[in-house]
Amino acid sequence: MKWIRTLAIYLFLLAGAVVTLGPFLLSILTAFKTSGQFAQTNALSWPDPFTLDNFTELLTGRAEFGRAIGVTLLVAALLVAAQLVFSIMAAYAFARLEFAGRDIVFWVYLSTLMIPAIVIVVPLYLMMTEAGLRNTFWGLVLPFAFASPYATFLLREYFRGIPQELVDAARLDGANALDVLVEIIVPLSRPIIATLLLITVVSQWNNFLWPRIITSGNTWRPVTVATASLQSQYNGNWTLVMAATTLALVPLLALFLIFQKQIVRSIAITSFR
Predict the structure, then answer these.
(1) Residue 215: inside a domain, yes or no?
(2) Is residue 152 part of a domain?
């Protein structure tokens, strides 16, 4: 009976892997086919012959997908840097500095996680429009550039676990609050900071709703909006759409391959700490 249970577990895991990886395999296979091959063959059949025409059209044709990738990289890089800096400072203040109403302010700030993102879209849009930032780079970035409640919470809990003796020793040596943060807290918090870096990169790379609302035209649209626009722009040319999704997947896949050990560690930190 034990081998039957083991077989059932493996079959269940195999089915889960197929359901999870199937869409990615379909996207990659379709990206290397011509429109004729896609229409005449099975969706999961091997491309014969392989073609790079879809990628060439995306990067050099009127789709301007290369520009969308550049915009996304720029936005993601700036938002990752800004969110980490502000979240680290906010978490340090909530974890180590003493001021009136600290815990009340923290829990009120954390409670904003309970507010659905869709609720603040209209107010944000009106604010950006009144400021003349609609369809601009700063309109994409500013609403997400400051501290994240989720990141602040994780960092605060991690900072509170750092021994107070280290902080006291640094203060006896004449270190001020900023020195303690930069020279003691941040170096000891590299695992959680790396975790938040990965989470922020993925979330900003996949952000769709706000860029879709605040941008128009091709100038500042990221890859998510550019991919969605291809379906109407090219009359359902699925080989081109799948090539776009494959290109959008490459940076995240590279990130996973480079930081796979850190990703596993990040799952442990965010789940159990």
Answers:
(1) yes
(2) yes
Counting the structural domains of the chain, the total is 1
CA end-to-end distance (rounded Å), the chain: 37
Tokens of 165: 């003796």
Q: Cβ atoms within 10 A of the Cβ of 159, count?
A: 22
Q: Which residue has the tokens 């995240």?
A: 252
What are 13's two structure tokens? 């895991």
Higher pLDDT residue, 43 or 37? Answer: 37
Phi and psi angles of residue 20, each rounded to the nearest 5 degrees, phi first:
-75, -45
pLDDT (tens digit per residue) in 195-217: 888 888 888 888 888 998 998 87
Burial 68-80 (b: 16+ CB within 10 A, else e): bbebbeebbebbb
Task: Tell me the percentage of the chain whose pLDDT exceeds 90.
Answer: 10
pLDDT score of 272:
45
d(CA 227, CA 225): 5
d(Cα 236, Cα 257) in Å, to the nearest integer? 32
What b/e string do you get for 165-194 counting C-beta neighbours within 10 Å, with b at 16 or more? Answer: eebeebeeeebeeeebbeebbbeebeebbb
User: Which domain does 131 fall in, by range?
Assistant: 79-233+256-272
Candidate ranges 40-49, 123-132, 157-166; pick with highest mean pLDDT: 123-132
Whose tokens are 């997908």? That residue is 65
